[in-house]
Design a protein that fits this description.
The structure holds 2 protein chains of 2 kinds. Chain A has 22 helices and 37 strands. By secondary structure, chain A is of the alpha/beta class. In chain B, 31% of the residues are buried. Classes of the chains: A alpha/beta, B mainly alpha. At the A-B interface, α19 of A face α3 of B.
C-alpha cells in the first residue's frame, strides 16, 4: 500500500511536551517497560486493557472514591463492567478546582449570531450549576430521573445539564429545530420528569418561536412534572400552553448553597441518553455511564487532542449530537470551551471563522460539509481571518476528502494539524483519532484510539491491517450500559453484537493501514449520513408512508462529490396504481419531511420506481439499492427475488451523479 | 436567455431545496430581499450560485457578488440574463 503524502509533522519540541508523551513515560515508570512509539503503547493498551485503563485513571487523576480493583469485571465486550468499585460525580470532575486561580480561569465563552457573548469563569460556572442543582433538588428531581431538553447551544444549556446530572438524573437533549414527531419519538420512550426548553431560536437573522412545539411535546409527555424555560418568553412569541417556570426565576428563588461537596454515584451510573435511529422501529435510546464517558473523554482530550488549560476548544455542534457532550467534557481537562449559536454564515459568509480568530481558538472542530461550504464560497481565511493560535482542525460527521486536506492547508492555515476523527453516538467517543506525536497523512485519521482493539472484519476474519467492517474486539469503558427500555438487552445485542459474536460491530467500513492510520469509508448498514448528520431511514418511512398514494419507500445515500459532505439522500418510492410522482407530490413529500422531521431528512432526489429490491425472505435490501447507486458490485445478488428492479435504478438519469461512481456505472451499462 | 425561464428555474430550485411549494408566496415580489426575509441564507446562496453555474454553464465571480446585485429574485435574474455569455455580440 503506497502511503499518501505527509501533510503535517509535529516537531520534536511539540512531541516532548505532549500529554501523550508524558503518559507514555508514566506507563514506562509504572510497568518497567519501554513504549518507544505509539504502536508499542497502543499494543499494550489493547492487549492489557485493564492495566492500561488503571494506569490512565492514575495518571489523569479524576476525583473518585472507592476501590479501583478490579479495573474490569468480565472479558466479554458485551457485558464487561469497568471499575465496579468506584464512585464519582461527572459534574464535580468537570468543575473541580485545578489550581489556586481556578475560580478566575475562563470556562465557557458562548456567542451567538447576533453578536451576543456570555462568559463564565470556572468559579461562576460552578456556582451557577450548584445553585440550579439546589433548585432542581427542591423541585424533587432525584437520582435516575430523566431530564430532557429542547435546547440551543448556550452556556445555560450546559449549566442545566451539569446541574441535573450532579443529582444523578440522566440528561438527554435535542436541538430546537427538531420537529415534534422526531422529538417525541425520542423523549416519549424515556418518560421524563423534567423538560428544559428554549422558547425561541434565531437562525440567519430570523427569530422563530417554538413554544407551539413545546406545548405539543408537553401534552404528549404525561410523566413530566416540571417545564423550565431556559430564557424568558420574549415579545412576539406566545407562551407555551403548559405551566412553566423560567430559569431566571428558579435561580432567583434559590439561596446559593454553601455545601461544596457533590453527591457521587457508581462508575456505571447512567449519565446521558443519546439517540440513534436505524432502518426500522423507534430510535434507540443509548444509555451512557458517567465513569465510562468521563474516562473516554479525558483520554481523547488529553492524549489524542493534547488539550489542557492553555487551550480554547470549539466544536461545531448542537445539543442534539454527541459532540456536544464531548465538548462539555473538555471542562474536565481545564480547557475553555467556546460555543456558537446560530448560522455559521451570518451576518457574513465567514462569520464562524471570524469567531474562531477573534476568540483565539486553538482547536477548531468542524465538518467536511462546512469546509466544502468555505471552498464553494471561495473564502480565503488564510488572508482575511488569520488564526495565529490555531494549532489543530478536527473534522467529523462524514468523510474528510483528500482534497479538503489540501484546501485547509492552502486556504485556511498552512502547517495546521488536521485530525479526521470518527466514532459516534453509540460509543459517545471515537475509534479513529488525532495524535500530537504522529504525522498526518493526507486523507487519513492519524491513529486508532488507545485501549480500543479496532479491527477490520474481512472474509478471513478480523485484521489489524486491511479493509472491512469496523469491529472492536475488547471491552472498553464507553461501551453503552445498554438501551433504555430494553431490560433483557435483546435490542442492544441485536444492534451491536449479533453480527460478529463477542465483538462490537459499529456499522462503518474502514481501512486500517500498516502505518497504523485509519480511513473511514462510509456506513456499512442502512443508516444514512447526510451532510454529516446521521439519519435513520425509519424516521423517513414513518412520515412518507403516511402520504396518500405512497405504498413503499426506500432511502439510500449516494456518493455525490459536489454536495456538502460528499453524498446526497435519494428516496425511492413505489406509488399506488394511477399515481404519478408529479411535482406537487414531490414537493409534498419534501415539505412533510422538513416540517415533521428536519431539513436533514429531505431527500435531494425522489424517484418513482415500480419495485424495491427485496430478498426472498421479503426483506427490503437497502444495501442492494445503495450498491447500484454507488456503482459497486452487488453482493449476493442471488438473495434478491427481483434483481431486475436494479436495472430500473441503473437506467434512471435522475440517479446519475456527475463525477460520482454511479455515473460511471450508468454510462457503462447505458 | 429569457428572464422568465431563469426566474422559473430559480423559484423551482428554491422549492426543491428549501421551501417545497411555498417559494412564490415567500418571495412575494421580485425585489424582496432574500437574506432579510429568511428566503435564503448565505450557505444557500453558495448552493444557488453553484446551481446557476452548472445549469447555465457560466462562471460567477464570487468577488462581484453582494446583496446589492444578488439578494432578490429580480437581481438574480438580471445577473444571469446580463451575464457576458448571454449578451448579444456587439
Amino acid at each position: 500500500m503506497t502511503a499518501p503524502p505527509i501533510v503535517h509533522s509535529p516537531g520534536p519540541e511539540r512531541i516532548a511536551q505532549s500529554g501523550l508523551t508524558a503518559f507514555a513515560r508514566f506507563c514506562e515508570r509504572e510497568t518497567g517497560r519501554r513504549f518507544g512509539d505509539y504502536r508499542a503503547l497502543f499494543e499494550f493498551s489493547v492487549s492489557e486493557y485493564p492495566r492500561f485503563w488503571q494506569l490512565f485513571l492514575k495518571w489523569a487523576d479524576p476525583l473518585i472514591e472507592g476501590d479501583p480493583e478490579p479495573a474490569c469485571r468480565g472479558t466479554e465486550c458485551e457485558s464487561a463492567e469497568f471499575f465496579p468499585g468506584l464512585r464519582l460525580s461527572y459534574a464535580e470532575n468537570l468543575l473541580r478546582k485545578l489550581g489556586p486561580d481556578d475560580d478566575q480561569r475562563p470556562a465557557i465563552t458562548a456567542l451567538d449570531e447576533t453578536g451576543g457573548v456570555i462568559r463564565f469563569t470556572r468559579g461562576e460556572l460552578r456556582a451557577r450549576v450548584k445553585r440550579l442543582a439546589s433548585a432542581l433538588s427542591r423541585l424533587g428531581l432525584a437520582e435516575g430521573d430523566r431530564v430532557v431538553a429542547m435546547a440551543r447551544n448556550t452556556a445555560d444549556s450546559i449549566v442545566a445539564c451539569l446541574a441535573a446530572t450532579s443529582l444523578g438524573a440522566i440528561w438527554s437533549s435535542t436541538a430546537p429545530d427538531f420537529g415534534t414527531e422526531s422529538t417525541l419519538s425520542r423523549f416519549k420512550q424515556l418518560e421524563p420528569t423534567l423538560l428544559f426548553a428554549h422558547p425561541a431560536y434565531a437562525y440567519h437573522g430570523v427569530r422563530r418561536g417554538i413554544t407551539d412545539r413545546i406545548s405539543e411535546v408537553v401534552a404528549a409527555l404525561p410523566s413530566l412534572k416540571h417545564v423550565v424555560l431556559l430564557e424568558p418568553v420574549t415579545e412576539g412569541v406566545a407562551p407555551p400552553a403548559a405551566p412553566f417556570e423560567t430559569l431566571d426565576h428558579l435561580m432567583a428563588a434559590t439561596t446559593p448553597p454553601t455545601d461544596p461537596s457533590w453527591p457521587r454515584f457508581g462508575f456505571n451510573h447512567p449519565l446521558f441518553i443519546l439517540f440513534s435511529s436505524g432502518t426500522t422501529g423507534a430510535p434507540k435510546c443509548i444509555v451512557h455511564g458517567a465513569g465510562g464517558t468521563l474516562l473516554e473523554h479525558l483520554k481523547e482530550h488529553r492524549l489524542h487532542t493534547d488539550l489542557g488549560p492553555a487551550d480554547k476548544l470549539y466544536f461545531h455542534t448542537s445539543c442534539g449530537w454527541m459532540m456536544w457532550n464531548w465538548l462539555v467534557s473538555a471542562l474536565a481537562s481545564g480547557t475553555e470551551i467556546v460555543l456558537y449559536d446560530g448560522s455559521v454564515s451570518f451576518p457574513e459568509p465567514d462569520a464562524l471563522l471570524k469567531v474562531m480568530a477573534s476568540e483565539g481558538v486553538t482547536v477548531f472542530g468542524t465538518s467536511a460539509a462546512y469546509l466544502q461550504y468555505c471552498k464553494d464560497a471561495r473564502l480565503e481565511p488564510k488572508e482575511t481571518v488569520p488564526m495565529p493560535r490555531l494549532r489543530a482542525i478536527q473534522s467529523t460527521g462524514s468523510i474528510l476528502w483528500d482534497s479538503q486536506y489540501d484546501w485547509i492547508l492552502e486556504h485556511l492555515k498552512p502547517g495546521v494539524s488536521i485530525q479526521s476523527i470518527s466514532g459516534g453516538t453509540d460509543i459517545i467517543g471515537c475509534f479513529a483519532l488525532g495524535n500530537p506525536n504522529l504525522p498526518v497523512y493526507r486523507g487519513e485519521s492519524q491513529c486508532v484510539s488507545l485501549g480500543l482493539d479496532v479491527q477490520a472484519m474481512t472474509a478471513d476474519g478480523p485484521v489489524r491491517t486491511g479493509t472491512g467492517e469496523l469491529v472492536c474486539r475488547n471491552p472498553f469503558p464507553s461501551r453503552p450500559l445498554g438501551l433504555f427500555g430494553d431490560p433483557g438487552g435483546t435490542r442492544f445485542h441485536e444492534a451491536y453484537f449479533s453480527q460478529y459474536p463477542g465483538m462490537w460491530t459499529h456499522g462503518d467500513f474502514l481501512q486500517l493501514t500498516d502505518r497504523g492510520t485509519a480511513r473511514i469509508l462510509g456506513r456499512s448498514d442502512g443508516t444514512l449520513n447526510v451532510r454529516g448528520v446521521r439519519i435513520g431511514p425509519a424516521e423517513i418511512y414513518q412520515i412518507v408512508l403516511g402520504i396518500p398514494g405512497v405504498l413503499e419507500a426506500m432511502a439510500v445515500e449516494q456518493t455525490a462529490p459536489r454536495e456538502p459532505g460528499g453524498s446526497r439522500l435519494v428516496l425511492l418510492v413505489v406509488l399506488a396504481a394511477g399515481t404519478t410522482l408529479d411535482r406537487p407530490l414531490t414537493l409534498r413529500i419534501k415539505r412533510e419531511l422538513s416540517q415533521r422531521a428536519s431539513s436533514n431528512h429531505v431527500p435531494s432526489v425522489i424517484v418513482q420506481v415500480s419495485a424495491l429490491p427485496t430478498t426472498h425472505s421479503g426483506k427490503r435490501s437497502e444495501r442492494a439499492a445503495r450498491d447500484v447507486l454507488n456503482g459497486k458490485e452487488i453482493v449476493n445478488l442471488g438473495a434478491l427475488k427481483n434483481p431486475e428492479c436494479l436495472d430500473e435504478l441503473r437506467r434512471d438519469p435522475a440517479l446519475r451523479v456527475e463525477g460520482g461512481p454511479g455515473d460511471d456505472v450508468a454510462k457503462a451499462s447505458g | 436567455m429569457s428572464a422568465a425561464a431563469v426566474r422559473k428555474a430559480v423559484v423551482d430550485w428554491l422549492d426543491d431545496n428549501y421551501h417545497f411549494g411555498d417559494a412564490e408566496r415567500l418571495i412575494g415580489s421580485d425585489d424582496r430581499s432574500f437574506l432579510e426575509n429568511g428566503i435564503l441564507d448565505s450557505l444557500g446562496f453558495v448552493k444557488l450560485v453553484l446551481y446557476l453555474e452548472d445549469t447555465y454553464k457560466i462562471t460567477i465571480d464570487r468577488n462581484q457578488l453582494s446583496p446589492r446585485n444578488f439578494d432578490s429574485l429580480g437581481l438574480i435574474v438580471k445577473y444571469v440574463t446580463e451575464h457576458p455569455k448571454f449578451r448579444a455580440p456587439m
